[in-house]
Amino acid sequence: MKAIVQDRYGDSSVLHLADVPVPAIGDNDVLIDVRATSLNIGDVHLMTGLPLIVRPFIGWRGPRQKIRGMDVAGLVHSVGAGVTAFAPGDEVFGVVSAGLAEFARASVKKIAPKPPSLSFEQASAIPTSAATALHALRDAGRLQPGQRVLIIGASGGVGIFATQLAHAFGAHVTGVCSTAKLDLVRSLGADEVIDYTTTDFALSGERYNLIVDMVSSHSVPALRRALSADGTLVIVGGERGSRLLGGLSRAMFAPLRGIGSKQRLRGLVSVTSAGDLATLAKFVEADKLVPVIGETAVLGETPGAAGRLLSGHAVGKVVITPTVLAE
Question: Are the CB atoms for 292 and 317 separated by under 8 Å?
């Protein structure tokens, strides 16, 4: 089968199209005939091997898993001996470890039936990003109806889902984004939008019950000044920081800054489960969650698409379909 492979760390130029074996599946796995794969910032971290703290887990000199791609949608091709929940031909979506390929192996704990109303491209855009947003709001943030929530990075991969889910939870939603994306964020359900190129929310005097930060453009003390006295700050990743820790340092050390305060400071570690996917599918079918796809490319065009994601110029999700360009 064809797949996008990398043998070393670096920018998107390390990605290349190659022929690789179709993966074998275990008793509790399914083999997915991939129809679409979306790119995540996590794919970029695995591509670059940064921050360095992740390398003991993914490979020090080069990636142990050489095929990128986390989120897929497609058809079940075959199932393991212990699988009863799925059968060949079922439409599914979920998380894998090697999705930029024509076939991918998935654990039954990481996939769910695809929402019938979505295309494969749309469904592939949901799993990791939307589950991260769900965990930030529902679990770490404990968001309640009527609360005021600030979404920093509201037009990004996680932010587009966080904005919609916060609206669905009945919160008053303020989204922070650039000028060009204000209308998009409004369309996602934001009650207010802040253009960060002209306005600094931290100096506005407004206070929020929950702040979800995907950008790391403000210091933690500045974010705390925008929190209510008993509010919650949830730090989701962030692309700034040292080569060693990157944005993880803010998430790791934020809880220490909240000791002795009624404010809750939390770093988020998100792992997507089949249950999360089923919950997200219900929001989709209730017309409360819609993927935003900014770019679609075919498998052979992945390096260019990944480069645009790395540059920060992508709007919404970037989706790759398995049709292969002539080499």
Answer: yes
The parent domain of residue 179 ranges over: 129-267
Phi (first) and psi of residue 40, to 5 degrees: -125, 160
CATH number, position 36? 3.90.180.10
pTM greater than 0.90 = yes
User: Mapping DSSP to helix (H, G, I), strand (E, B) and coil, where does residue 321 land?
Assistant: strand
- pLDDT (tens digit, 0 to 9) for every residue of the chain, 327 residues total? 999 999 999 999 999 999 999 999 999 999 999 999 999 988 888 888 877 877 888 788 889 999 999 999 999 999 999 999 999 999 999 999 899 999 999 999 999 999 999 999 999 999 999 999 999 999 999 999 999 999 999 999 999 999 999 999 999 999 999 999 999 999 999 999 999 999 999 999 999 999 999 988 898 999 999 999 999 999 997 655 556 555 566 666 666 566 668 899 998 888 999 999 999 999 999 999 999 998 999 999 999 988 888 776 667 899 999 876 544
CATH number at residue 171: 3.40.50.720
**C-alpha to C-alpha distance for 73 and 139, rounded to whole angstroms:** 26
Domain for residue 188, yes or no?
yes
Please tell me whether residues 113 and 180 are part of one structural domain.
no
Domain count, the chain: 2
Q: How distant is the alpha carbon of residue 238 from its chain centre?
A: 12
